[in-house]
Amino acid sequence: MTAGLPAVSVVIPVRDEVAAIEGAVASALGQEYDGDLEVVVADAMSTDGTREALARIATADERVRMVDNPARTTPAGLNTAILASRGDIIVRCDAHAELPAGYVARAVEVLDEVGADNVGGIQDPQGRGTFSRAVASAMRSLLGAGGATYRLGNEPGPADTVYLGVFRRGGLQRSGLFDESLLRNQDYELNHRIAATGGLVYFDPELRVTYQPRDSWRGLWRQYWQYGAWKRVVARRHPDSVRLRQLIPVVFVVGLGVSVGLTLLGRHRLGALVPGFYGGAVLLTSALAAKRAEPGAALLPVVIPTMHIAWGTGFLLGSAEAGVSRIPPLTR
After folding, report:
1. Does some domain include residue 159?
2. Which residue of 26, 264, 321, 324 has the fewest CB atoms within a 10 Å radius of its CB?
3. Alpha-helix residue ranges (DSSP H) falling in the chain
4. Does residue 197 share a domain with residue 73?
């Protein structure tokens, strides 16, 4: 161990992920970091063998601990793990993510260099099946990503949000933990509070973490519907957090509705403008992906509209409002 390096806690919320959790924990334990490091996994009372797998891992390596998450939600699991952790630096990891070996060392270095409260980098989608590869290709495209820095950014600097995140415990003490009433979009909302309390959220493209996208149309639709619905909740609570790029799917869905109305009224040319322009953009994105020989490019005309329409309709019609925020303080 190198003197002066802060102790690090990697926190992982998990529920019924027996096939993925060992890889996530192994990536955390395999960090090339000379300071103290522990892994705290908050299990949402899994029934598929995840708990047994974690018990075996914890028995083999004393740096791993499992804590219960009876609320069975992601933000509650994250908060439970953070409150049970000992490190001065909190590294978020998900069950489907794998941290590269130099991730923690680089993040701690950047935190010190720029004085940030949270640093993070690129979400690198890598599909394993045909459909998930198509989703990964869509997420890497400008049309699919919507210009999100954590997907397409290549220049370091301040950001609205970052993927996963490596936090100073002091920053969490000042701004509070994850809002447990937000089942989605809790990362973005926490980063907004960090910035609102004078902290810095910093993007570093060298921090790249692999992410496995959904592998079915139903799963993708449900995921993006929830993204849109919970973004609406956050927008109500923090109107100043909304960015133009986040409203484009909403405008698109409204435009489709107007197009249908115009077509029914016999205004066929006007009614064809929005779907025609959008369809052209999707086909161009698909053709460019095919030219690059990206796996799953042929499915992009299905995947990209699914992402946009689900997000937009979720924002417009979703009833995900959870009521009063529940943001536990960090007392350690």
Report:
1. yes
2. 324
3. 21-29, 50-60, 74-84, 103-114, 130-140, 142-145, 149-152, 169-175, 186-196, 217-237, 244-264, 268-271, 273-291, 300-317
4. yes
How far is the C-alpha of 97 from the C-alpha of 272, rounded, in Å?
A: 41
Domain count, the chain: 2
Q: What is the pLDDT along the chain (332 residues), one digit of tens a residue?
A: 455 899 999 999 999 999 889 999 999 999 999 999 999 999 999 999 999 999 999 999 999 999 999 999 999 999 999 999 999 999 999 998 889 999 999 999 999 999 999 999 988 888 888 999 999 999 988 888 776 776 777 789 999 999 999 999 999 999 999 999 998 999 999 999 999 999 999 999 999 988 888 889 999 999 999 999 999 999 988 998 888 888 889 999 999 999 999 898 888 888 899 999 999 999 999 999 999 988 889 999 999 999 999 999 999 998 655 555 677 777 65
- The answer to whether residues 240 and 207 belong to one domain is no
Predicted model pTM: 0.87
